[in-house]
Amino acid sequence: MSETNRPVPSVGMVGGGQLARMTHQAAIPLGVGFRVLANTPTDSAALVCADVQLGDDRALPDLLTFAKSCDVLTFDHEHVPEPVLRELERAGAVLRPGRDALRYAQDKLLMRVRAEELGAPCPRWRAVTTVEHVADFAAGTGWPVVLKAARGGYDGKGVWVVDDEAGAAVVVERATGAGVPLLVEEKVAFSRELAVQVARSPYGQVAVYPVVETVQRDGICHEVIAPAPGLDEEKATHAQELAIELAHALGVVGMLAVELFETERGVVVNELAMRPHNSGHWTIEGARTSQFEQHLRAVLDLPLGSPRTVGRYTVMANLLGGGDPDVFGRYIHVMARDPELKVHLYGKEVRPGRKIGHVTVVGDDHVDLLERARHAAAYLKGEA
Amino acid sequence: MSETNRPVPSVGMVGGGQLARMTHQAAIPLGVGFRVLANTPTDSAALVCADVQLGDDRALPDLLTFAKSCDVLTFDHEHVPEPVLRELERAGAVLRPGRDALRYAQDKLLMRVRAEELGAPCPRWRAVTTVEHVADFAAGTGWPVVLKAARGGYDGKGVWVVDDEAGAAVVVERATGAGVPLLVEEKVAFSRELAVQVARSPYGQVAVYPVVETVQRDGICHEVIAPAPGLDEEKATHAQELAIELAHALGVVGMLAVELFETERGVVVNELAMRPHNSGHWTIEGARTSQFEQHLRAVLDLPLGSPRTVGRYTVMANLLGGGDPDVFGRYIHVMARDPELKVHLYGKEVRPGRKIGHVTVVGDDHVDLLERARHAAAYLKGEA
Fold first, then answer.
1. Which biological process annotations from GO are given for this protein (chains A, B) (predicted)?
2. Is there a contact between A281 and A319 (Cβ–Cβ < 8 Å)?
């Protein structure tokens, strides 16, 4: 794409999921080139983006070809193996975030070691290879404990809450069998979950978004309230500073999401992601600069946009597939009921429990907004 | 594109300009199918949209092929000839707006006749074929007068302000030579120009946006301030009611833009457009539902979204090409200077005076917003 008589920079996003779809949407007004490496022509982003390379988004040959057509490579997910990233960098590809930063989003064990070095508040944890290690650890923290795959997982899962040695034994055996390294963490007694997002450019500029409340169920993000209602200002500032420190220390380029537990003693770091994140979908309508636009500006080393909020509160609820695939039939009723609500569909085939879209609503009263977003999500799932 | 297991409706937009580009952007979250019929692969919309048919966007064979792949056809411009529209309807294509409505946007003479029948305030006017007709008319209104091509035009123009008989003679001769029918209108003594947009669905639902002030220079829209500052509430309501009445009476489906003159005696209708319009680009950031989303909802007969404003004022300024094509080089400085400002680039080659994008800024003080938008537009043109 050429805006002007000289070429404009072009970003290639590895992976064709909904994050790439929404990043494409943000690339249109910016007028920058935007390409996607998608596995299939029906990937969420491939359905809408003009410039798609089909291929294996984790395999070196396809990534090398893709990299040649882009000034900068960035990622829809964390699944490109580290050795592949190394070869890409060796071949001269500009990865943003780079491999040195990405490994902390790919490996939870490395992330815990580094976060503690940096003085970030973390749950108690240790690497484990046997059920005896887990039992030893639980003797100090009490059961239940949380087992996590450091990288990858099995059966599509990477986090297991186990109540006792017998439960731990099942996970350790299956993970070991699948070659998945594990760590154990204390189950943090939190009052709620929070998240904070920050963008960082290669130049070192940062832009931090307000701390949000995230509501998870069965390990899936269901709702986000921005900003987190009633959050103590000091705690909010501390969380934002923490995210900025992590972004600088880990050398993140692009968006960083820090998922946190709010506890009586303060916030505790749960997970990191170095890409646009579900906890930031609210920014499309709720902030002057969406996380998708901000990610593009950051990876292209453009000046960052204002992360200022547009309304007092913004609430987002994920749309999960239900038993009846006719989402579009129900969509019309949701639109008619609430003309202020924004529905985002990702073009994905409906399967029970699968994220197929989200809804967003902006206003003054977060209780009312949450009720409306929840109703729409339930109705679209076929439950209301 | 399929969101669900049953097909979702698909809109085809005829023409690949920036209006189609921004409508594509709005189609992504809605999850509806969106195709473009573009003349070349470097058309503004063809650069970003996944689903493009290349062809002649005014020729029946290409339009018939295009229509087969879409549930609904809509338009980026008014240039599809009326006989072609008739054949498309005869072949079963669903045109929204339909041919009966579109002719009032295509033919200024028909529009004036119909608008007067409906009691809409219009400038004095008459159809003219000779310079004597113009002189007779001007004897009643005084010079200068405005000559308009009822359809089409010549030298890329369709409106001429002429000061005397000699000036009129040049236009009449050239228009007659080119087979262009003319009308003459009084030059309205207006205090400023206004515009109002309304969406109408086949079901008959309407959603009206606030009346905006438009600043034109050399016949090109330069700036829009939404809502029009200091506009008398009664006048604003009257303009909105007028737009709604016109939309119903003309059977418009989709967006209708009514361009108005504000005079001492009230508002006077200048022009109509039945598509997303430059006077509504501010709605992308400034309203809950952008004109592009609203147009899609209307042509698909979906419930309309809220046209409510997001901030107190939104100001838009068009970006026109200047002498130096390196817009992107200057873009970075504009972003750095004003992180709240949104730049939209259309992917068009820079030529002096050509619309290549726009900027938008939302806030409380319209004087400050206008200054910022103007500065950005001038800087991007290479003038500041």
1. 'de novo' IMP biosynthetic process
2. no
Tell me the residue range of the domain where A136 lies: 124-186
Residue B2 counted as domain residue = no
Give the residue from A165, A186, A207 where a domain finishes. A186
pLDDT tens string for chain A (384 positions)?
Answer: 334 344 789 999 999 999 999 999 999 999 999 999 999 999 999 999 999 999 999 999 999 999 999 999 999 999 999 999 999 999 999 999 999 999 999 999 999 999 999 999 999 999 999 999 999 999 999 999 999 999 988 888 899 999 999 999 999 999 999 999 999 999 999 999 999 999 999 999 999 999 999 998 887 889 999 999 999 999 999 999 999 999 999 999 999 999 999 999 899 999 999 999 999 999 999 999 999 999 999 999 999 999 999 999 999 999 999 888 888 889 899 999 999 999 999 999 999 989 999 999 999 999 999 999 999 999 999 887
Query: How many domains in chain A?
Result: 3
CA torsion angle B110 B113 B115 B117 (round to 10): -140
Q: Which residues of B289-320 are buried (b: 16+ CB within 10 A; e: fewer)?
A: bbbbbbbbbbbbbbbbbebebebebbbbbbbb
Is some CB atom of chain B closer than 8 A to the CB atom of A37? Answer: no
Identity of the residue numbered A370? L
Q: Which residues of B touch A321 (CB under 8 A)?
A: none
B30 belongs to a structural domain: yes
Q: Please state whether A307 falls in left (phi above 0), alpha (psi between -120 and 50) or beta.
A: alpha
> B153: phi > 0 → left, psi -120 to 50 → alpha, else beta; which?
left
**Residue B363 falls inside a structural domain:** yes
- Cα dihedral sign for A82, A84, A89, A94? negative
Supply the DSSP string of B173-227, one letter for each residue. HHHHHTT--EEEEE----SEEEEEEEEE-TT--EEEPPPEEEEEETTEEEEEEES
Helix, strand or coil for residue A114?
helix
Residue contact B345–A308, C-beta within 8 A:
no
Tokens describing residue B329: 């080089």
CATH of the domain at B73: 3.40.50.20
B223 vs B315: CA distance, rounded Å: 7
How far are the Cα atoms of A7, A112, B285 from residue A25, in angstroms, in the given order? Answer: 20, 34, 14
For the annotated binding site of A for ATP, the residues are: 108, 148, 185-188, 193, 270-271
| One-letter identity of residue A35 | R
Helix axes B99-106, B108-117, angle to 10 degrees: 110
Which are the contacts of A90, defined by CB distance < 8 A and separation ≥ 6?
none
Residue B260: both structure tokens together:
């108005």
Which residues face B316 on adjacent strands? B224, B360
ipTM above 0.85, yes or no: yes
Cβ atoms of A284 and A344 closer than 8 Å:
yes
Looking at chain A, the number of H-run helices and the number of E-run strands are 12, 17
Query: Within this chain, do residues B196 and B321 fall inside the same structural domain, yes or no?
Result: yes
Residues B332 and B255 in one domain: yes
| CB contact (8 A) between residue A327 and residue B24 | no
CA distances from B254 to A348, B104, B232 (A): 27, 14, 27
A118 touches chain B (CB under 8 A): no
Distance between B238 CA and the closest CA of chain A, angstroms = 24
Indicate the residue among B134, B168, B186 that finishes a domain: B186
